[in-house]
UniProtKB/TrEMBL annotation:
SUPFAM superfamilies found in the cross-reference section: alpha/beta-Hydrolases (SSF53474)
Alphabetical list of PANTHER family matching this protein: ACYL-COA THIOESTERASE 17-RELATED, ACYL-COENZYME A THIOESTERASE-RELATED
Source species: Gouania willdenowi
Domain Acyl-CoA thioester hydrolase/bile acid-CoA amino acid N-acetyltransferase: 60-191
Active site (record annotation): 284, 376, 411
Name by which UniProt lists this protein: Acyl-coenzyme A thioesterase 1-like
Amino acid sequence: MFKAWMPVRKILHFTDVKMISYLHVRHHLAGLQPPAVCRSSSSVKQAPLLTAAPVRALIDDQISITARFLPPSSPVTVCTRMHSEDGDLWEAFAHYNTDTSGTVNLTSDPSAGGSYLGCEPMGLFWGLQPAPGGREGLRLRKRNVQTPYVVRISLLEGHVSPCMRDISELAAVTTERWYMAPGVRRSDIRQNGVVGSLFLPPGPGPYPALLDLWGMGGGLVEYRSALLASRGYASLSVAYIGHKDLPPPQNRLNVGDEYFKAAFKLLQDHCEVDADRIGIFGLSFGVFLSLRIATQLGLNPSCLILVNGPVGSTVALPDMEDHFLTFEKSQEYWTYDKQGNVIFKDVSLPSNIAPERKAKVENINCPVMYIVGEDDLSSSSKENADVIEETLRSAGKSQLFTRLSYPGAGHLIEPPYSPNARVSFWSIKPEKLMTVWGGHPAPHAAAQEDAWKKVLKFMESHLRSVTGVR
């Protein structure tokens, strides 16, 4: 797949990262260096070598990072740095000790300190945090999925922090992390009132497909859809609040059932989508929307993938009453931590949601996977999962329900190796408001990796396999 990623300028490529001395390359190729290998030069001994393979990969691919030709049993630091699309610097670092051959392999060797401890092959990616002195309340989210994150990995002498002065850099390598694989096609959707982005996989269709729904943070979030298309699924990411092309005002959800029905139908009617193999992927408030689409709009999705969200809404959708939904109307259920950050968890407690504002879960006729972050502080995920499971059991449909539950994971369970934001800005205007999502770095990262593998397997069973449960 990734052979299509060829750089514009002439560079040297290696299918296997081979130990070729810098001087030899310089002699034969007029100073050109391969992008996956960067070494310091030395006329006396082999200089330290840092490799990353593959150097270009999808965001959910694990890469192997190795440092060689170092003094045996010596301390070194490996760090990552990258700039977000807003220009903010993010970084992570870990302390290692070389083995008797002067080698460190992040796939098998434990970190002794830094952003994480223990053996974490991808810790330098999920451990990324805003650099000291940067802006507060940041959350890393890719807006332009047609460009990669460019991450510089550095090998430093000793056990140090990247922010220290006079650090000796021994070697470095630059990697690219993509959501959108070569051949994936993206198109803007402004059709039948629907505002979204459609991603189609490479190769001929028809493809199984997913309707991709996010939470009340608003806007059009594309990166999960881009990654799903990179894994072979057509995916339509839909905006329903907080977008300039939706009916104003932007802080209100004033689209309802017909809007979401039109989005689902748009996938069904697309010439490159298999109309009988369409699922729905919802996170946060997108869980309620997914359940409502599946149970009350006369549609027949093939499966639901639900992440940390409610079975209903504390305030009415436009289709429920002649009434606009604004998230601020649920303030009676807001709580705050000691720093004054808002916690939305009680908003979605099933006991706080009126029966008429809950999805008719008993009408579900397709397999459901519900993912619970046990440290979710933005949604009462466990309680909502309990309601779905018990309702389906009472309806004689317990075989349709699968629960994944992760201790230490927060609300924002996203594709693997994504940094978690435990706290970030919810809004800037009319006043600054920070919210607590929850999640602790290492268990949250483990949850994302495990859940994504199981989600892909679940989709394989129920969207690709003609024998999937219906």
